[in-house]
Design goal:
single chain; 562 residues; 5-stranded antiparallel β-sheet; 16 helices; 27% helix
Length: 562
């Protein structure tokens, strides 16, 4: 699997020339292997096999006749492909059991081999050759749908609106194809505004499947309308619930699912966590030329789903109930899910700028991530990056390639104590980055959009005003543990204490059930673990988070065995 759904790929269709991998023909021997797991079905001309949004669809292997696949949009249908004998239907959503992105219809009557979603997963987990063939085809097909810039999901927004940026991030990071129209510049917008009775101050608006009009919707509303999640089964008791789909949670999901555990992953935003907001991670083992956080997250998500982990996006855990067994996690949607073990992988959130009006400019000049989505808003402009850590260094180097000039602001005297050498060297060698030490932003000013920034600099705190409208804040993080209060032992900064970090006062809860010695990632409740950035004492790096998430699964087995 060499290609993956990636923001960069949506811009540069790397799938071109890969049609044979996108739509491979199965050999008679491969079809014979599939026969054992499928059932035969006749299909008649004109029959609709799938509509956009339909969940839990089987994969169909065409034995005779043909199936046409089309993308539906405002201007009618666009043909994607015609599957003939030896070809098969499906893309990533088929494997995930979530809403279809396309319509498929019988073009010529014939016969298909129907492989249900469960059976498809069995094949992917047990047949190495077909697994690679299907996974590659599914991923490339999704990349193709994203790159087509077509479909029946339209985001009407403004590049001056924070809500628009949030929705762009949500759809992009979920690898969901959509058409992006700017109300300020796109000529096609007026007709849509009139047709759907949308006022200018309703934006951002998501036109969902060409029918439902969502005005400034939450991520949850968009996910529900687009069928991004499977129906949640709140009766089933899982082996393990992983809360948080950053690198640590995704690693835990991959290992737990691949070792046969029934795994549910809950994610407030989109899989990838903090790493998903990095333009390029260069120190993660195995990627000598670096990898964007988005691509890493997309790979990990597909890998976890391949092994059967269920991932719910835009699903927040509101509260952990540790006093009942199995443990219950209350969801933002009002229901609760239960499991015999829980892995807390909720990481950390970026520290906000302590200025009164900073939140007013969120997304309209203040950003907490530096990927292609944000960079598009400040192409060839002057920007400010605040922070002295690796994330700030990466952001500065990345933005220097897109923007006119980058001002890197740090409160300290230099970068040596906080940033990796390779990044310091790159910053020094990049002509359009200026490092400002002993410098701090003191005020922000503007109308709808951030327009001016005042910073104080040097030992004399000289105030300087700059007409700069884009500030990237990379100033460290605080743990996402509010949902654990009253249940899990935290340190004074709010990080989860595990293993030997637990104090005697924390222990009665654990000792009360079994007296088994606590495992290194176990919290003060047996069978509840914490991994990655959320854990007190953890190394705040992708590799460390992945390592902890993976290693923790062995301890989960032990707890489930007790
Ligand atoms: C811009 C940037 C660049 C970076 N670059 C590098 C780098 O080059 N190399 C490196 O090694 N490290 C880098 N890091 C650090 C690295 O990304 C983190 O150490 C790593 O992401 C931690 O992973 P995690 O899974 O523990 O937590 P996170 O990545 O923080 O993920 C936690 C997830 O939990 C979700 N969540 C939170 N609360 C809830 C809830 N109640 N319910 C459901 N879900 C919830 C969040 O939405 C999030 O997706 C960078 C960080 C940033 C921000």
């Amino acid at each position: 699997m060499t290609e993956i759904i990636d923001e960069a790929m949506a811009d540069q269709p790397a799938f071109i020339g890969r049609k044979a991998q996108m739509f491979p023909q199965l050999t008679p021997a491969q079809i014979a292997r599939l026969e054992a797991l499928g059932t035969h079905s006749r299909m008649s001309k004109g029959e609709i096999l799938t509509e956009p949004g339909a969940r839990n669809r089987p994969m169909l292997v065409v034995l005779s006749g043909s199936i046409e696949v089309v993308q539906t949009g405002m201007n009618g249908e666009v043909l994607v492909v015609v599957h003939t004998a030896g070809s098969f239907t499906g893309e990533m959503s088929t494997l995930q059991g979530i809403g279809s992105l396309v319509r498929s219809r019988v073009r010529d009557a014939g016969e298909v081999l129907v492989i249900t979603e469960d059976r498809l997963r069995t094949i992917i987990q047990t047949d190495a050759e077909l697994s690679e063939l299907f996974m590659r085809a599914f991923i490339l097909r999704r990349v193709g749908l994203i790159a087509s810039q077509a479909g029946d999901v339209i985001l009407l927004g403004s590049s001056y609106s924070a809500g628009t940026l949030r929705l762009q991030q949500f759809l992009t990071r979920n690898s969901f194809p959509y058409v992006n129209l700017d109300v300020n510049t796109d000529p096609a917008v007026q007709t849509l505004l009139e047709r759907f009775h949308i006022q200018a101050d309703d934006v951002p608006v998501v036109l969902c499947r060409g029918e439902v009009v969502l005005k400034n919707p939450s991520n949850e509303e968009v996910a529900a309308c687009l069928g991004m999640n499977q129906q949640i089964d709140d009766v089933r008791i899982r082996d393990v619930i992983v809360v948080g789909a950053g690198p640590s949670g995704l690693a835990a999901a991959v290992y737990a699912a691949s070792e046969g555990l029934d795994v549910l992953v809950l994610e407030t935003g989109t899989p990838g966590g903090q790493a998903g907001s990095s333009s390029k991670i260069e120190n993660y083992l195995g990627f000598p030329t670096g990898i964007s956080g988005l691509a890493l997250a997309a790979r990990a998500r597909v890998q976890a789903q391949k092994f059967g982990a269920e991932i719910r996006t835009a699903y927040s855990a509101l509260k952990l109930n540790c006093s009942q067994r199995p443990y219950a996690v209350d969801l933002c949607h009002g229901s609760a899910v239960r499991a015999r073990a829980v892995i807390i992988a909720t990481g950390a959130e970026y520290r906000q700028l302590a200025l009164e009006n900073a939140s007013r400019f969120l997304g309209t000049g203040i950003y907490y991530a530096a990927t292609a989505t944000e960079a598009r808003r400040c192409e060839m402009r002057e920007v400010i990056v605040v922070g002295g850590g690796n994330s700030a260094g990466q952001a500065a180097v990345y933005l220097a390639g897109k923007c006119r000039h980058v001002h890197l602001l740090v409160r300290s005297k230099g970068l040596a104590d906080t940033m990796s050498n390779y990044l310091i060297r790159r910053i020094t060698e990049t002509a359009n980055i200026t490092l400002h030490t002993n410098t701090e932003i003191v005020s922000l000013d503007g109308g709808e959009q951030l327009e001016r920034v005042v910073w104080k600099t040097g030992p004399d705190h000289v105030l300087v005003t700059h007409a700069i409208g884009h500030v990237f804040l990379m100033t460290g993080a605080v743990p996402s543990t509010a949902w654990l209060k009253g249940c899990i032992a935290l340190n004074d900064k709010g990080f989860v204490r595990t293993g030997t970090d637990l104090t005697a006062a924390d222990l009665p809860a654990a000792q009360a059930s079994g007296g088994r010695p606590l495992q290194p990632f176990e919290t003060n409740w047996p069978g509840i673990f914490a991994v990655g950035d959320v854990r007190c004492g953890s190394v705040k790096r992708v590799a460390a988070a992945v390592g902890e998430g993976s290693a923790c699964v062995q301890q989960v087995h032990q707890a489930l065995h007790d």
